[in-house]
Design brief:
alpha/beta, globular, disordered N terminus
């Protein structure tokens, strides 16, 4: 490839973004350091710059979780190994990652969870789009190479036509242990593909409705190559594997598996409209809510650190949890999705670890208790304490809502349609598609009042069936109360969605109030 020495598409720095896109892992330390430095710089900026930077640095679920993990590292959170025994301390800041696409952070409360419960904000890291299939290359006339893709979730497919696309991926590499392959994340960071639309001259009725086939219509084109180039690329495992291996600085033969996704190379624009009202970005659903939760738990950690320097004995102190799941767009039925027992297991492990830490020693085995030294203090785990904690727990299920569209008024409920810029949205459904009930509604609106934030309602048009989201999926695993909410956006599941930075800032303030409320 020709070295054009262009500036990075995301940060504007002078490193060569064409030839050294960042890779996270053991390779390409220079570009991995660049990503770390960029995230560190964002962490010190104002809210709108942090939100914009996070969206641009998170082209897929893998990169989004990496971004959140690095922000938590900077805030002093400690990563936990799910396979290890946990020793937690009251006031401690911790997180764990599942499958590189789901992340769970928490601040351990100073009071027993059985007395205060948990305060949880849940969102998801995935967005609808297209994933590359294995052996993705389709070789056509003139050396043109297109890619075989599969739809992920429910994207608005025609919004993906005729726009520059790039590829981000997780690579699994050959390692010393066959059961533990090495992992590298890589982002090509530049336009390498596009999905060209058929000219209207070949489909005169295109504007009257144009049913699309993923297999036929949505194949991205990456370029054309001569016979010698194609032969060399095929020896490396194909165009995709060759591109990603070069970007990651690894041998293509060492790539044993990959999960590669297309994404639009669109900058996040936060001042669109005559009065600069609108935020336009790919992946607002649901990274905007995930990042609001991230900002809130980092702020709560900072406040907690200060509180216990100057106020060591507060009246109450609940354990605060941020839960960012994957695969919400495909039903949540994976081990990193909300339908798995991951959150329940996490909460119970937190409860047990904090209960154990509060006692001199912990034994779950009756024989160990019988052999204990005389006069020592011991604790036997009782599940009823965890059940009491769940009774005192509240969940905010945060997933964006449909904003009223001025061109399609008939699609909306006449009295409960939120507008962009009108504040956070409480979502209600009479048939329990959302978990919101009057108690959850009241709690969230009360938090909004305390934060100085106005709230809105979304209710489906009575003749339109509504969807569901994380709240009800989680309550199949956990007996907890909560509310479904989000921010109002246009064009949900488009390649580029539209919302409001003001709504995100208001939502983050409500989340802060939730974690801090006494």
């Amino acid at each position: 490839m020709e070295n054009n020495s262009k500036s990075c598409n995301r940060c504007g720095s002078g490193h060569d973004s064409d030839l050294t896109p960042y890779a996270i892992g053991g390779m390409h330390n220079l570009v991995a350091d660049h990503r770390r430095e960029r995230i560190a710089d964002i962490a010190d900026e104002e809210f709108d710059i942090r939100m914009k930077g996070g969206l641009e640095l998170s082209p897929c679920n893998f990169m989004a979780v990496d971004y959140m993990r690095r922000r938590l590292d900077l805030a002093g959170f400690i990563q936990l190994d799910p396979a290890a025994e946990w020793e937690l301390k009251p006031g401690g800041k911790y997180y764990m990652v599942r499958n590189d696409t789901a992340i769970f952070a928490f601040i351990a409360g100073h009071n027993p969870t059985s007395e205060t419960g948990f305060r949880i904000i849940a969102a998801h890291s995935d967005s609808p789009g297209f994933k590359l299939k294995p052996n993705a290359e389709i070789y056509g006339d003139g050396g043109v190479v297109s890619l075989n893709v599969e739809k992920y979730g429910g994207p608005i497919m025609y919004t993906w036509f005729d726009r520059p696309l790039s590829i981000a991926a997780r690579l699994m590499l050959r390692g010393d242990n066959p059961l533990k392959p090495r992992t590298i994340l890589v982002d090509l960071e530049r336009p390498v593909a596009l999905i060209p639309h058929l000219a209207i001259h070949f489909n005169r009725s295109v504007n009257d409705g144009n049913p699309l086939s993923v297999q036929k219509d949505m194949k991205p084109v990456v370029g054309y190559f001569n016979a010698e180039e194609l032969a060399a690329l095929k020896e490396q495992g194909g165009v995709v594997k060759s591109m990603l291996a070069e970007a990651a600085g690894v041998n293509a033969a060492d790539i044993l598996g990959m999960e590669a996704v297309l994404y639009p190379v669109d900058s996040t624009r936060d001042s669109v409209g005559l009065n600069f009202d609108y935020l336009m970005s790919p992946r607002l659903d649901d990274l905007s809510m995930a990042f609001c939760a991230l900002e809130a738990i980092i702020t709560a950690a900072e406040q907690s650190d200060k509180m216990y320097v100057y106020m060591p004995d507060p009246d109450t102190d609940a354990t605060c949890v941020m839960a960012i799941f994957d695969n919400e767009e495909t039903g949540s039925g994976t081990r990193q999705g909300a339908a798995a027992p991951t959150l329940r297991n996490l909460l119970e492990r937190i409860h047990i670890a904090l209960e154990r830490q509060a006692h001199t020693e912990y034994f779950a085995d009756e024989r160990a208790l019988d052999a204990a030294p005389e006069g020592a203090t011991y604790y036997r785990y009782e599940p009823s304490g965890f059940y009491r904690a769940l009774e005192r727990t509240f969940l905010i299920s945060a997933d964006d809502a449909h904003a009223w569209h001025p061109n399609y008024n008939e699609k909306y409920d006449p009295t409960n349609h939120p507008v962009i810029g009108g504040g956070p949205v409480v979502k209600i459904n009479a048939n329990c598609k959302y978990m919101t009930d009057s108690r959850g509604d009241a709690i969230f609106r009360n938090l909004g009042e305390r934060a100085g934030v106005e709230c809105q309602y979304f209710v489906n048009h009575a003749d339109v069936a509504g969807g569901s989201t994380l709240g009800n999926i989680l309550t199949s695993q956990l007996d907890i109360a909560g509310v479904d909410m989000g921010c109002a956006i246009w064009a949900m599941h488009s390649a580029c969605e539209t919302g409001s930075m003001a709504d995100l800032a208001d939502t983050e303030r409500v989340f802060e109030e939730f974690f801090a409320a006494r």
